[in-house]
C-alpha cells in the first residue's frame, strides 16, 4: 500500500535538504550583506558548477544507503571513509568539503576506535556536523511512540562523529521537531510540543545542555530580528537560524533564500532549513528548476525511491 503522506514528506524533506545544500555551496563562508542569491548559481567558494551538492548531502545519502542495506554504525563509518577517500556518493567522484570534527571522527574510526567513541567530546566540538546528515532517521522513527527508544537511536547515530552533550541534545531537538512537523505541520506547535517533551522526559544528564537552546523555545523567538540570528557552523547557531528561516517564510523558496543569504555556513543552514520546510505540509513546493539542477539527479532519485520502499515496507 502506498503511504501517500509518508511519501510526500520523505521526498520533500530529503530533496529539500539537498536543494538547500546546493544553493548554499557557492557562497559558503561569505559574510552576510556582501552578496545576494536569488536562484541556483555555481562556482564561488569551491569553484563547482551549478547544482553541486556537498558533504551535507553525501553524508545524508551514506546514512540512507546504510539504512536500506540494514547496516549498523560500523558500516556507516565505512561509508564515510569511502566518501573521504574515494569520493563515494559525491557529484563528481571527489570530496571537496568535510567538517573538522567529522573528519577527526572518521580518522579515529580508521585507527580502530569503536564508532560509539569516535565523536569528540570537547566544548569546541559542537559543530553542526550531525544535523547536516541525520534527517532520514525521522522516517524510521515515525511509528516509534517511546521517546527514550527514539533518543537511543538518535544518540547512537550522533555519537559516531559528535560526542558532546550539546550535540546530543541538538540532534534530539532537530529530530523531534521534524517528527512533530510530520504529525502537525505547525512550527509553533512543534516548538512547544518538543519543549514540553524535553522538560518532562529528557534524560537527566543531558538536561543542563537545554540551556544552550533556550532562545529556540522562547515564545518570541520567531520575532527576533535577522541581525540577532547568527548563521555560523556552531550547532546552536545553525539550528536557530534554520528554525527562524522556516518560521519567517511562507514558502519553501523564501525559506531557502533567506537561509542562504544569512551567509557563513550557508550550505548546512540551508540544508537544515530545506529539511524542516520540506516536512511542513504547507511549504513543500520545491521549485522545479532547483530540483532539476541537482547533479546526478537520477542516481539520487533511485536512492530516495529505494529508501521510501524501505521505510514503507
Ligand atoms: Mg557542506
Describe what you observe in this structure:
This protein is an all-alpha fold. The chain has one domain (4-312): ADP-ribosylglycohydrolase fold (Orthogonal Bundle). The chain has 13 helices and no strands. It starts with a helix and ends with a helix. It binds magnesium ion. Magnesium ion binds next to helix 2 and helix 11.
Can you summarize this structure?
With 313 residues, the protein is mainly α. Helix content is 54%, strand content 0%. The mean pLDDT is 97.
Number of helices: 13
As for the number of domains, it is: 1
Shape: globular
Helicity range of the residues? 40-55%
Would you count the extended β strands for me?
0
The CATH architecture would be Orthogonal Bundle
CATH superfamily: ADP-ribosylation/Crystallin J1
Rg result: 18 Å
CATH topology: ADP-ribosylglycohydrolase fold
What binds here, in terms of ligands, is:
magnesium ion
Taking the alpha carbons of the first and last residues, their distance comes to 9 Å
Order of helices and strands: HHHHHHHHHHHHH
Summed over residues and divided by their number, the pLDDT gives a mean of: 97
Percent strand equals under 5%
The profile of the biggest β sheet is: none
Keywords:
313 residues; mainly alpha; 13 helices; 54% helix
Give me the secondary-structure topology.
Layout: H1 4-24, H2 55-68, H3 73-86, H4 100-110, H5 138-141, H6 147-159, H7 165-184, H8 187-201, H9 235-247, H10 252-261, H11 266-279, H12 288-292, H13 297-312
Bound molecules: magnesium ion (MG).
